[in-house]
From TrEMBL:
Keyword DNA-binding: no
Residue ranges annotated for the Alpha-L-rhamnosidase concanavalin-like domain, each copy included: 322-421
Protein name as annotated: alpha-L-rhamnosidase
Keyword Hydrolase listed: yes
UniProt xrefs under Pfam families: Bac_rhamnosid, Bac_rhamnosid6H, Bac_rhamnosid_C, Bac_rhamnosid_N, Ig_Rha78A_N
An example Gene Ontology molecular-function term: alpha-L-rhamnosidase activity
Enzyme class: hydrolase
EC number(s) stated in the UniProt entry for this protein: 3.2.1.40
Organism field: Paenibacillus soyae
Domain Alpha-L-rhamnosidase C-terminal: 777-844
Domain Alpha-L-rhamnosidase six-hairpin glycosidase: 425-767
Length: 883
């Protein structure tokens, strides 16, 4: 038995968040982790209590259950603007009772649309380009105990209270399908208010709502007027409440930010500043009254995804003078965010900052791949003092900046790069003995950081930056290892459902700004694949419930498309996008599009059947299982010869057939041998594109060719994952040949150096090389799978993952004495299946004990490939002679 202090619940969360301010979910879910010393510790019961401080409103009593994730609140209806404290205690399998956890909280926002009393306000000037400033002066009484500000905008906004930012979040209200779903934010501004006079100031920019989107120069895709909506609730010690709202008493002015565009950057004229405009002592008598906008509240929802924040700062590593004479700063890392700079100069002096990802083959500043995106910050000095500036409503993708207007010798001390992305918890680590592979992992993570800015964008630098569905779905499993992406993707998937066409078609990008362009295979399949991945990785059943109708609509859309039943051979498809085997002049690989489309038809209908089974929709489960089987049969008739050869002789065709189990069992060994031969005939190089690449190494490992998969991952010559690193890459490239072996750049104008799709190999690094995975029958790492596939090409590999239950880790190392060491960390309240490859049962030690006698080991059996163990929670170290 453990002493009482060694066993307790911690990290209590409400809807994935530690403390949730602005909760909009009426039936929130609670999750926690267990701390326990020793091994094989399981929860046998829990008791959850929810209270409003003094008053308890829901007590589950002791519930006999090992469930510690996603316990759904089932008490009285929650009230708006109420702070709820949550506590939990647990019992282990021996009946030992823990202490109560530390209290967490979930504070609701405005749960009903009719609780909004504010009006939408805007400023109407003859010239609409400059960002707008809005302000309100008001008086408060003494003894303020609490204040919450609820705010949103049409456009993007910053809100200030008495001159201070309401919080550190950026690009609010985020990007959603605005005409259907518009997030509002909740701010705790208690400490920013005082008795007497106070001021709220709002700065409004175009953002995604009104700004340029896409490569055709389109703008105002959602509306043509920026506006703000704010409602401040102030609570006093005596129980009184005062409400300050946006209305026609507010005043407005143009700002010194004359141009602000996500793609193009900003133009700021400091000579036009209204200094102190957001403070209470400012004279706004020359400002104009605001105008009211009758927009309504029906689309408003509480903030769902993680907010965008500055998460890191990078200092310059070098200041260069290029052959053309350009002054260029290298920050050493391709990143997304902006540069803060300081300057002291005369009035009217201009500073210009341009941004680029790479230098050209001659070492000059290179911006051709940005297409029409200018990525330029222009600042006009007010003069007479040291001035500091950083952008408000624009972000850039860059490693290098070109600087004009600051003396070269002063630049290094005058600039700092600020890294910006949705502030998701970092959850995964991977490391091995090959430093280039470790750099590949870092590149994958940096690519995710740069492109997970409120939505999963394809790239962060050129005139695109859209939520391409295909890119998101192929990378999602890797993304879920690296970071906690559950709230991020839950929010994005709701927009996918909102923008889905009435016939079930799925737009190429979400939110849908390429109106009328939709429903390519492997892209639209994000509607089914992404919810399923969230279920696998987080045990999140609710996301399947929320997206089920969307998933069904997509599969039924495919069913309605084919000219021949159970075959998808119509419509536009991207095919194996950017594959190396594409014919000259084409971006589409050689794998037939109808083969790819039918393969994904089978896969999505199979996942839909599994989803229906999870949701106890048994008739649907049978129906979609039968559909998937029929599509698979049709795939074989159409694309597989009687002797079991896939009709299309491409790596991608074989990868999909093997990965999605589309071949008869008897044909799979031959097909996997053919795939292996295709790889070897290319001198161990891939020819796959966006569709085949994510599954290539997984398909090889699944069918016994892990050594070849290792050779592919470790390949240093072009094309390969490590080749870009030899050219200085610090993120994943869109093209395998973004920089060619001779140093010249890919001339394709669609050439991003921060494009995460090919980073999907990260899933293989975690699941196969390190051997860390979840069991889909017990999702969310309730049952962990530890099964490293070992290679002589490296001497060790290890990974860790911060799951909803706690840290999971797997790793192996070849010791100098010839033995193999395999480590596993299994958090309390979970169990694991562990495979020790190449082990003989009688020779395996766990630490210093024969494995069969080790604490926490439930069963041991010998298999053809090694020793299979079933273990409980704890830390294990297995030692054996590797055969």
């Amino acid at each position: 038995m453990h002493n009482k202090g060694s066993f307790h619940p911690y990290d209590l969360r409400c809807e994935y968040k530690v403390d949730y301010l602005g909760l909009g979910e009426r039936s929130p879910r609670f999750s926690w982790k267990l701390h326990a010393e020793g091994r094989d510790v399981r929860q046998s019961a829990y008791r959850l209590c929810v209270s409003t401080g003094e008053q308890e409103i829901w007590d589950t009593g002791k519930v006999d259950s090992d469930q510690s994730l996603h316990i759904t609140y089932a008490g009285p209806a929650l009230s708006s603007r109420t702070r709820y404290e949550i506590r939990v205690k647990v019992w282990n399998q021996h009946g030992q009772e823990s202490d109560w956890s530390e209290a967490a909280y979930g504070e609701t926002g405005l749960l009903e649309h009719d609780e909004w009393r504010a009006s939408w306000i805007t400023a109407r000037f003859e010239q609409s380009e400059p960002c707008q400033l809005l302000r309100k002066l008001f008086t408060l009484g003494d003894n303020i105990v609490s204040a919450r500000l609820y705010a949103t905008s049409l456009g993007v906004y910053r809100v200030y209270v008495n001159g201070e930012s309401a919080d550190d979040t950026l690009f609010a209200p985020g990007w959603t399908s605005y005409n259907k779903r518009l997030q509002y934010q909740t701010y705790d501004v208690t400490k920013l208010l005082a008795s007497g006079e106070n001021t709220i100031g709002v700065m409004l920019g175009n953002g995604w709502y009104m700004g340029n989107l896409g490569w055709n120069g389109l703008s105002q895709l959602y509306g043509n007027e920026r506006a703000a909506l704010l409602q401040l609730h102030v609570q006093y010690k005596d129980g009184r409440e005062e409400v300050i709202v946006s209305d026609d008493s507010w005043r407005a002015s143009k700002s010194a930010l004359l141009i602000s565009e996500l793609y193009h950057g900003e133009y700021y004229d400091a000579r036009l500043e209204s200094k102190g405009w957001h403070n209470k002592g400012f004279d706004d008598s020359e400002w104009i009254p605001v105008s009211l906008l009758g927009y309504g509240y029906d689309t408003l929802i509480a903030q769902e995804g993680e907010p965008v924040r500055i998460v890191e700062e990078l200092q310059p590593v070098q200041v260069l003078c290029t052959p053309k004479g350009e002054t260029v700063v290298d920050f050493g890392q391709n990143m997304v965010g902006w540069v803060q700079f300081a300057v002291e100069a005369d009035e009217g002096h201009t500073v210009v900052i341009r941004h680029a990802e790479v230098l050209d083959e001659d070492g000059n500043f290179y911006t051709s791949n940005l297409r029409t995106a200018r990525q330029t910050i222009t600042y006009i000095c007010s003069g007479g003092q040291r001035e500091c500036y950083e952008p408000y409503f624009s972000f850039q993708g860059f490693r290098y900046i070109q600087v004009e207007g600051i003396r070269p010798e002063l630049i290094a001390a005058s600039v700092v790069a600020k890294v910006i992305h949705s502030d998701m918890d970092q959850t995964g680590t991977f490391e091995c003995s090959d430093e280039l592979v470790n750099q590949l992992q870092r590149n994958i993570v940096w690519g995710q950081r740069g492109n997970f800015l409120d939505i999963p964008t394809d790239c962060p630098q050129r005139d695109e930056r859209m939520g391409w569905t295909g890119d998101a779905q192929v990378f999602m499993r890797t993304a879920a290892f690296n970071m906690n992406v559950a709230p991020f993707f839950t929010k994005w998937l709701k927009d996918l459902a909102a923008d889905q066409l009435p016939d079930g078609g799925v737009p190429f990008v979400i939110p849908d700004v390429l109106r009328g362009r939709h429903s390519s295979a492997a892209w639209g399949d994000a509607a089914v694949i992404c919810p399923w991945v969230l279920y696998e990785r987080y045990g999140d059943r609710r996301v399947l419930e929320q997206q089920y109708e969307s998933m069904v609509k997509w599969v039924e859309y495919i069913r309605s498309q084919g000219e021949q039943e159970h075959l998808w051979n119509t419509g536009f498809h991207f095919g194996d996008w950017l594959a190396m085997d594409a014919p000259n002049g084409s971006r589409v690989g050689s794998t037939p599009k109808d083969l790819i489309a039918t393969a994904f038809y089978a896969y999505s209908s199979a996942l839909l059947a599994k989803t229906a089974a999870v949701l106890d929709k048994l008739e649907d489960a049978v129906r979609y299982t039968e559909l998937s089987e029929r599509v698979t049969e049709q795939f074989r008739r159409e694309f597989v010869t009687p002797n079991g050869r896939v009709a299309s002789p491409t790596q991608t065709a074989y990868v999909l057939a093997l990965m999605f189990d589309l071949l008869e069992e008897k044909d799979r060994p031959q097909a996997s041998a053919v795939l292996a031969r295709y790889v070897e005939e290319q001198n161990v190089r891939l020819t796959t594109g966006f569709v085949g690449t994510p599954y290539l190494c997984l398909a090889l490992s699944k069918h016994g060719y892990t050594d070849l998969a290792y050779k592919l991952v470790l390949q240093r010559e072009y094309p390969s994952w490590l080749y870009p690193i030899s050219k200085g890459a610090t993120t994943i490239w869109e093209h395998w040949d973004g920089i060619k072996p001779d140093g010249s750049l890919c001339e394709d104008p669609m050439n991003s150096y921060n494009h995460y799709a090919y980073g999907s190999v990260g899933e293989w690094l975690y699941r196969i090389a390190a051997g860390l995975d979840t069991d889909v029958q017990n999702p969310g790492y309730k049952k962990v799978r530890i099964a490293p596939q070992i290679s002589e090409a490296i001497s060790y590999a290890r990974a860790s993952y911060s799951s909803m239950y706690g840290t999971v880790a797997s790793g192996w190392e070849r010791l100098e004495d010839g033995r193999m060491k395999v480590k596993a960390v299994i958090p309390p309240n979970t169990e694991a299946s562990v495979m020790l490859p190449g082990a003989a049962m009688e020779l395996v030690l766990e630490s210093t004990v024969p494995v069969a006698n080790a604490a926490g080991v439930h069963s041991v059996r010998q298999t053809e490939t090694g020793v299979q163990l079933e273990v409980g929670s704890g830390e294990y170290e297995f030692l054996y002679v590797f055969k």
